[in-house]
Amino acid sequence: MRFLFFIFLSILITINICNAQGEAAALFLLISPTTEANGMGEASIAIPMNDPLTALRNPAQLGFQSANNYFSYSTNASDWLPNFNIPDLRYRTDGFTSGVNFQNIFGNGHNLSFGYGYFHTLLNLGELSRRGENNEDLGTFYENEYANQWTVSIAIDYVVKFSVGLSHKSISSNLITSGIKTGFGKARDYGLLLDVPLIEITNAILSNPIKIHPNIYPSANISLGAVWQNIGDDFQYPILSPDPLPRMGRVGIGTNLSFDYRKNDFAIQLVSFKWTVEASDMLIDRWGDVRDQAGNLIKAAGWSYRGGMGDIKFFDEVILGHSNYRTERRRGWELSIAEILSVRYGRLTDRMGNRHVTTNGIGIQSKGLFQIIKLIVPNTEWKTIPNFLLSHLNFRYDQSTWSTVETDHPLNNTKFEGFSMAIHN
Fold first, then answer.
1. Crossing angle, helix 384-392 and helix 367-376, to 10 degrees?
2. Which element (helix H / strand E) includes 202?
């Protein structure tokens, strides 16, 4: 039992839900599920991203992705808390998405896209042997926590792009503390994402595209995102009192600057730079027993959910960049070259100062490489199937690493690896 105690305590500490205001069940839901975002300080709700798993953080991401992707698969894995050297302690997410762009079906004027996705999240704690009071063997138990999530999202693109998303998830927790403890809950996520293309709007006003070269066009976007995660009643146990779900509010902004090369039917993004920052807060209040001076109980210990965005001060934290010890803050950037190579960096600081993590990551994808191959070799040289693969398939590999000031911190040197495949238009 001491072994289990240290594992669970470490998990609580590392995701900063160990203080009285933030105690909740199913804390594995707060682990960032996407390798791309994990290289950018976990910031992923306020800027359009390509990894389908970002829909686990903001379901509205799927609406933007469905405008370009017909189908995608993505996976992310990590040896969780690597300093403990426990091979069975592993975190993994998998997701499948499909999308429909109505403009491709009905033509111009129908600038709507719809996306649907299924995601599975698993925190594997491995097989543990349990002994009785007389050291008798009570068997081996497989411990895990997992969630199944279904997401729908719709996006509209009339110069300004706006997406809304909804997720439904079923959550299970199979742990051993005293006997077998199985928990179950259901929750929903609500997400919004707004993307404003500043130069595109300027081009429409001037009726003349801005160029820095006859074939090079700049692009500058600013985006806003907001999410309410794990909205539900509570987390139920067969014989224990229910616990709150880890309800979260998140809000953030992002910017994206890029330069595209376009000539005839060839187009490639030469370089892009993304930057984003977000703040989040646990929407739970907990209190202990309240007694009068004579020791009489006035109000029993308990908890309640909070509404809105909790203690987040959007302008002060997100716009001005001021710190707030009651909330968590994430920020990161990504530099991409020729839609082939991406370099990422970020930082995250949680409330009460339990985590100060620096993140970095890299990513490679085939989209830009395939475009260059098509440019070098004329289309007439390719048969139908190879040309389709070069034009509509994209493979991605991403890697990210977390670093902490304390070398013995459970999160230090945590690594994430992700792979995704997409069929795009």
1. 140
2. helix 198-206
Domain that holds residue 399: 2-424
Residue 218 burial (10 A CB sphere; 0-12, 13-18, 19+): middle
pLDDT tens per residue, range 319-333: 888 878 888 999 999
The mean pLDDT of the chain is 85
Phi, psi of 22, rounded to the nearest 5 degrees: -120, 15
> Of 14, 58, 30, 37, nearest to 281 (Cα)?
30
Contact in structure between 394 and 72 (CB atoms under 8 Å): no
DSSP 239-302: SS--B----EEEEEEEEEEEEEEEETTEEEEEEEEEEEEEEEEE-EEEE--EE-TT--EEE--E
Secondary structure letter of residue 356 according to DSSP: E
* CB neighbour list of residue 407: distance below 8 Å, 6 or more residues apart: none
Q: What is the pTM of this model?
A: 0.88
| CB neighbour class for 307 (10 Å; exposed up to 12, middle 13-18, buried from 19) | exposed
Which amino acid, residue 66?
Answer: S
Q: Classify the C-alpha dihedral 11-56-87-81 as positive or negative.
A: negative
The number of domains in the chain is 1
Tokens of 252: 């953030």
